[in-house]
Amino acid sequence: MAAAVTRGRNRILDAGTTLGRILFFLGVSAVCGMLVAGLMVPAAAMAGITANGSVQFFNGLPGELTVAPPGQVTRVLAADGSQIATLFNENRTQVPLEQMSPNIKNAIVAIEDYRFYQHGGIDPTGILRALVTNSGGARQGASTLTQQYVTNVLNENLIAQGNDAQVVLNGQKSINDKLREMKLAIGLEKQFTKDQILAGYLNIVGFNANAYGIQAASQYFFSVDAKDLTVPQAALLAGLVNGPSLFDPTQHPEASKTRRNLVLDAMLQHGYINTQQHQDAVNTPIQLKVNPPKQGCAYAAQAQYFCDYVLHQIQNDPAYGATQEDRIQKIMRGGLTIKTTLDPRLQGPAQAQVDATTGTNPDKWGASLVTVQPGTGKVLAMAQNSRTLAGQGTGFVTTYNFNVDRADANGNDLGGVGGMQPGSTMKPVTLAAWLGEGKTTNQIVDASKRRYGVNYPWKTTCGPVHGWFDSSLPPSTDLQNDEPGWYRPMSVRQGIYNSINTATFASLAGLNDFCDVQRAAYAIGLHLGDGNDKKIDLSTLGNILGSQNVAPLTMANAFATFAADGTYCAPISIAEVDNAQGKRIGGQASACKPNALNPDVAKATTNVLQDVLTKGSGLLIPQKLGVPDAAKTGTNQYNNQTWVLGYTKGLATASFFGDPFNGSAARLGRDVTVNGKYYPLVDGAYIAGPQWAQYMQQVVGLYDHGDFDAPPQNLIGGSSPQTRSSDQATGGTSPGQAPQSTAPLPSTARSKPGNGNRKG
């Protein structure tokens, strides 16, 4: 192969010689003012622009150019470094000159500016040559690579500032634009070396609407890195910059080949390749391996909705910019590397499981799983059975994330999901309040009591208690369980693992301070899913049984607090954010609060929730993990939002099945067929339960799955009746949403006792 570019200079015409400076001055003043006007903008020459005016204008122009990094691709990565998604406005990945094939460097210089290493930013020889050529009726430009780089930098700066409309294309440039470009090119040559300018040019120039910079272009057209470009490949790409759409080989293969061969001719003429190399390259057919970039979370290789959640975390964080628009620009143009907490070893099984739960799903039932690591708050998996674009799977299409708060997902201004009714999975909060007052799990309470009237004497230090259950005050009803036979004294433990509403209320009535329930909810991080970070309101009786919307991630993290012996950790999804230069600029460290909940209370709560899976509603889940585990089932009053919240020592997972958009009577979870199986009604243990268990069976061994810490005996107490058989493993129901200071829904809006409705 021929040696690299010839470094010899034409010392007579070079801008560094005396005569060169004279010609340079003429080229900038008289020539630029009059002749260049005719060359570049013929119409402007007729406007009577004088040489003297051009000199004055030229002298007043800025001579330094701010070279900001051009927009680059942002990558979102899983914890193991595997790619989740890429995001960009312009598909560009910068690479240093040494990571570019010599072929592309030689090709671009040969065709665009063969005197690049000889001139000082503008090329008087080139200008005069172009003038002579154009005087004969042909058209030839005179912009050097340095000038072209200047133009690209100016345009990129405008785009970065949101001023796309001010971008000036080559055919639209005025004489003033050209003069400004020339002076900035001269200044640029004083700031940077030739190789730096060439690298900057090759990294910024557009080759295609889907490929900016040589690395992206190499990957797009040939699926290779820039360092591996062959002579014919490099020649084809070098030919594109003159007309990316005109010479696009995917659209105009013959024009592209003709242009490529013209580049090869130039490479031969200027000594970059020899005759044999030229002939071999000319005879090489255009062999494309187009690799279109797929940008955005909608095209994520894994975890579409988790990806969207991560981006919303950045968009909502002032650390990444003063305004949300600034943060979006940083994501879309900043070339960030966002390293997340997602564990693909869990994500794959989670996604496969939610898809399997509903199958083809013509009725568009939603299924989701989200897993948090106790003691760190790391979000390890987040999956749901829908997709963000049509044709991506058998699930239905929605951009709404079922698992997170409304502000952390698409739809925050459009009435997005914003959580679902957790039903009886809220009952452990009352249990935690009970234990926090030093009471025991085996203490007997009167679960026969069903009436809590308007003037019931609740013990409260934080304000009034709202709502009532009293059939003497229609439309209210007395408190109901799902089945008869459970209106009797029982232990608090039994009331939880059998999910008996009247037992939970008996515990509530036995508290020294009703407000301890609210405090327990705060301690484990419960808040509403509407996106405003509102604390959950447990001063309304209906809410005690789970009628307010809470996001699955929030619920999983709350139960992770039990698993971590009372240590609350805020959920985190972003381990580290690096800028395009590899410098760390952000990330989420674990934000944990030890003893947020009394450790002994957390241990005793776990001890009771273990019984859910061995004695209570969880017995209906046929799959067993085979390791220490704890859980709580939950179902709303319409059987259309159902849950299992379950955990081991190392993993806490919220499993949801139902209608994530509508927890009302408009769509009942009764007399439905899901994945080929008929359900007279849906209970938390029926679909969400097996979904949780089958997923956890696959991943439980990857994290700590040892014994839970034993609770102190003083919170357990003496023995209690254990009378419920496995075929009675059913539970209570939420009485529905009871607005503050109003009665709960009438019994006609709920299942009648004894109809076999098994809510957990």
UniProtKB/TrEMBL annotation:
<feature type="domain" description="Glycosyl transferase family 51">
    <location>
        <begin position="81"/>
        <end position="267"/>
    </location>
</feature>
<comment type="similarity">
    <text>In the C-terminal section; belongs to the transpeptidase family.</text>
</comment>
<feature type="region of interest" description="Disordered">
    <location>
        <begin position="710"/>
        <end position="760"/>
    </location>
</feature>
<dbReference type="InterPro" id="IPR050396">
    <property type="entry name" value="Glycosyltr_51/Transpeptidase"/>
</dbReference>
<dbReference type="GO" id="GO:0030288">
    <property type="term" value="C:outer membrane-bounded periplasmic space"/>
</dbReference>
<comment type="similarity">
    <text>In the N-terminal section; belongs to the glycosyltransferase 51 family.</text>
</comment>
<keyword id="KW-0961">Cell wall biogenesis/degradation</keyword>
<dbReference type="GO" id="GO:0008360">
    <property type="term" value="P:regulation of cell shape"/>
</dbReference>
<dbReference type="GO" id="GO:0006508">
    <property type="term" value="P:proteolysis"/>
</dbReference>
<protein>
    <submittedName>
        <fullName>Penicillin-binding protein</fullName>
    </submittedName>
</protein>
<keyword id="KW-0378">Hydrolase</keyword>
<dbReference type="InterPro" id="IPR036950">
    <property type="entry name" value="PBP_transglycosylase"/>
</dbReference>
<keyword id="KW-0328">Glycosyltransferase</keyword>
<dbReference type="InterPro" id="IPR001460">
    <property type="entry name" value="PCN-bd_Tpept"/>
</dbReference>
<feature type="domain" description="Penicillin-binding protein transpeptidase">
    <location>
        <begin position="368"/>
        <end position="648"/>
    </location>
</feature>
<keyword id="KW-0808">Transferase</keyword>
<dbReference type="GO" id="GO:0008955">
    <property type="term" value="F:peptidoglycan glycosyltransferase activity"/>
</dbReference>
<feature type="transmembrane region" description="Helical">
    <location>
        <begin position="21"/>
        <end position="49"/>
    </location>
</feature>
<keyword id="KW-0133">Cell shape</keyword>
<dbReference type="InterPro" id="IPR012338">
    <property type="entry name" value="Beta-lactam/transpept-like"/>
</dbReference>
<dbReference type="InterPro" id="IPR001264">
    <property type="entry name" value="Glyco_trans_51"/>
</dbReference>
<dbReference type="InterPro" id="IPR023346">
    <property type="entry name" value="Lysozyme-like_dom_sf"/>
</dbReference>
<keyword id="KW-1133">Transmembrane helix</keyword>
<keyword id="KW-0573">Peptidoglycan synthesis</keyword>
<dbReference type="Pfam" id="PF00912">
    <property type="entry name" value="Transgly"/>
</dbReference>
<keyword id="KW-0511">Multifunctional enzyme</keyword>
<keyword id="KW-0121">Carboxypeptidase</keyword>
<keyword id="KW-0472">Membrane</keyword>
<keyword id="KW-0812">Transmembrane</keyword>
<dbReference type="GO" id="GO:0009002">
    <property type="term" value="F:serine-type D-Ala-D-Ala carboxypeptidase activity"/>
</dbReference>
<keyword id="KW-0645">Protease</keyword>
<feature type="compositionally biased region" description="Polar residues">
    <location>
        <begin position="716"/>
        <end position="750"/>
    </location>
</feature>
<dbReference type="Pfam" id="PF00905">
    <property type="entry name" value="Transpeptidase"/>
</dbReference>
<dbReference type="GO" id="GO:0009252">
    <property type="term" value="P:peptidoglycan biosynthetic process"/>
</dbReference>
<dbReference type="GO" id="GO:0071555">
    <property type="term" value="P:cell wall organization"/>
</dbReference>
<dbReference type="GO" id="GO:0008658">
    <property type="term" value="F:penicillin binding"/>
</dbReference>
